[in-house]
Amino acid sequence: PTSFIVFKAKVYTEPPFIADLITFRSVINMIHLLLIVVLGCLTRVDSFSSLSQTPGSIAAETLVQPPQQFRSVDDLAAALHLKSDQTLQIESSVKLSKGLIQNKLRIYNNGVPIRNFILQAISFKNGTFNGAVSGWLPPPVGYINSTISKSEDELATITANIANNYSSGRSDVEIACAADLTNHTCIKQIDINTTTGKAALVYFVRATLSTNQLIRFPRGIVDAVTGNVITSSAAISRRKDHNYGGKSCDIIGDIVNIVSKETTCCPELKGGNLKCPGPNYGPKKKQICLNATYKDGYVILANKNVEVYTLDNQVDLRQGKIVKFKPEDGPNDEINGASSPAADVWYYVNQIFDFMIESNVTFPHTPVRAYVHFADKFENSFSDGTNMVFGDGDTFLYPLSAADVVAHEFAHIFVNATRVSNFRDESIGSLESYCDIFAKSFSAYLNPDGKVSDWTLGTCVTKQDNTTLRTFDDPTRGGFFKDNLTDLGNSFFYKGLGIFDRAFYCIVQEENVPINDAFKAFTNAVLLFWSESTGFLDNACGVYRAASNLQLNATSFFNCFRNVGIDLHFCSLVRTQ
Ligand SMILES: [Zn+2]
């Protein structure tokens, strides 16, 4: 069986592996994976809802408006009628024009953060809030004993069991133990049931499980009192059956500690693959300088932004070694039609940092780690929220080191740092789409004229002609994705990534909003308006409000969301001053 979907321009055949997964359990979803697109409903949703519909929630702007001013978050909290055991904290901030700053605010109940119900408030440089607020306040939280806790061991067992529950009855899936988990994260939170408005103390747990046959991403919301799993998901990706012999490779040195006396240089080597050759790297005028770190006669693909590791066909990220080579030898990692996946990933991630600086977006969590040559003939790429991992492809794909694929995976790390998590189905559709939008905007940035050259993604990694992974202008091409909320129904919400992809196309191509402006509106929405499990409606509302705050033509955004079945009449624009 194959583990991918390739979209032909006209013909689409359902891959057997996808059908296999769906049959065995309809609740498996694929998170973070660019190519594998399988998703199940966590809960059956009969209509799309906004946080505004939660019983007892209140729109913040009905309590506070400009020109009221507040000298501190505590003063603002009091004006919003937060209880004495609740505090408001700034979680992130973005500069707007005219010296204004837009802040994302999180409500804490006895020191425990409340999921989902975030607020936005605008402040001056001196920290005074100008009364412009938005977002929905949660219903009153009754008494919650937040000192109750579960040990990390207990939560690790629960997390491993989540993974096992999603693969029960499968003889080909190894049983996971707590000790197998990597990147295990447990965050104590208060979860508000959006149907009843009731609050509960929970843990949000997530981890990566990487074994020889599978990669799994279990995650769940666990009741802190009973230990019951309230809701969960577990993405599964299959590796190819293969003997992991490991090829001999003399270019890889030990992990280096970069200290002093290092410089940068432009090693001469080829990038790209047979379908999309280039860039041509080197020191000459018409070549692109890789700006690699150079020390003691070795080129090292590590700097303050990114560290590129090679896994040399292994699957355990801990076995990764920083790519290091003598300039005269080159990285020597040509495979499956690509000249040097390591050099390409290095180049594109560094370019992404330049792109983000130019777009005025800060990314604090550096250096990021990028792993190339993951497993053997792995036809996919993924991010576990912290690392980017790229396979070498095989029959259907070239190595997944193309500019837009790298940018898509990078975007997952960026999004993860904002605490917006791919969890509820609708947020998966929204976030996958944001990663597509990030990738498309980055591709445009790489073009000399800064404009979009075509509205596809992943075209350089597919081997067949006329195949691609995304089509923004018509996401439904290929028959898998939906591009209108009214068509989505109860189908797998991953299919919904076409909704925002299509809206983005409309905003840029049909409404003529410059792509970087549209990108900034979506990015500010992710940073300030989207929260853990917000769905299509609230996320579109966030983009609309972010666009308005950036002084963009908000009507263009309103119209394009209407075209994809999202009516934003419930989402009022709030004055910024
Ligand atoms: Zn993705």
From TrEMBL:
Residues 287-415 form the Peptidase M4 domain. Pfam families: Peptidase_M4, Peptidase_M4_C. GO terms for molecular function: metal ion binding; metalloendopeptidase activity. Gene3D superfamilies: 3.10.170.10, Neutral Protease Domain 2 (1.10.390.10). Keywords: Hydrolase, Membrane, Metal-binding, Metalloprotease, Protease, Transmembrane, Transmembrane helix, Zinc. The chain crosses the membrane at residues 22-42. Residues 426-566 form the Peptidase M4 C-terminal domain. One of its GO terms (biological process) is proteolysis. It comes from the Eukaryota. This is Peptidase M4 domain-containing protein.
